Amino acid sequence: MEVLKKSVMFLALVLLLALMLNNGAGALAKNHDVGGDQGWDVSTDFGSWASSTTFRVGDQLVFTYTPGLHTVVELAGEKEYNKCDLSGALKSMSDGKSTVKLSKAGYRYFACGTMGHCQEGMKLKIKTLAANEVSDSNTSSSSPSSTAVTFNHPPHFISYVIFFMIFVVLLVL
Ligand SMILES: [Cu+2]
To answer: Ligand 1 centroid vs 137 CA: distance in angstroms?
Structure first.
C-alpha cells in the first residue's frame, strides 16, 4: 500500500510540474505567410488577410514572391501607404523570401516596389499587438498562416487547485 501511495504522489507531482511548465511557456512566436496561400502577389486581398490575422510582438512576416517580379518595400507611414508613395521607404527587399520581424507594437506599412503594383492593391498595413494585448477585433486565431503552434491558454487555476487538493489528500492519507 505504501508503494502505491508513493507512486501516485510522484505521478501527481510530475503532472503538476508539467502543467506549470506548459503555462510558463506562454505564447510562442508565429510566422505569418503574408497573403496566405496566394503569397505576396497583385491578386491577393491583403486587407482581408491582415484583418483575419493577429500579429504579436515577436512574430515574423514572411513575404514569398518571384524575385524580379515583385519586391517588398517598408513604407514610412499611413500617408505614404494611402498614396503609394515609395520615395521615403525605410527598407527594400527583393530576395523572393523576405522576412520581417515584428519587434514592437504598433502599425507597419508595406508595398510592392514594382511600378503600378501598389496602386493595384499590392500593399499591406498591419497592427502588431503587444505580447499579451487582447485583439480588438473578435476574430479567432484560426488564421491559416501559422506555421508554429501556440499555447495561448489562460492560466489553469482550477487545475492547480485540483492538483493541490489531490496532493494534500495524499499527504494526509
Ligand atoms: Cu509586385
So the answer is: 28
Q: Are residues 89 and 117 in the same domain?
A: yes
Q: How far apart are alpha carbons 163 and 12 in whole angstroms?
A: 7
Ligand 1 centre and the CA of 126: distance in Å? Answer: 18
The protein residues having their C-beta less than 5 angstroms from ligand 1 (an ion) are 70, 112, 114, 117, 122
Cα(163) to ligand 1 centroid in Å equals 55
Residue 134 lies in a domain: no
Q: Which domain holds residue 167?
A: 2-21+155-172
Q: What is the pLDDT of residues 3-34, one digit of tens each?
A: 667 766 656 555 555 555 544 444 688 999 99
Helix orientation angle between 157-172 and 2-25, rounded to the nearest 10 degrees: 160
User: Considering its fold, how many domains does the chain have in total?
Assistant: 2
Q: 87: CA distance to ligand 1 center in Å?
A: 16
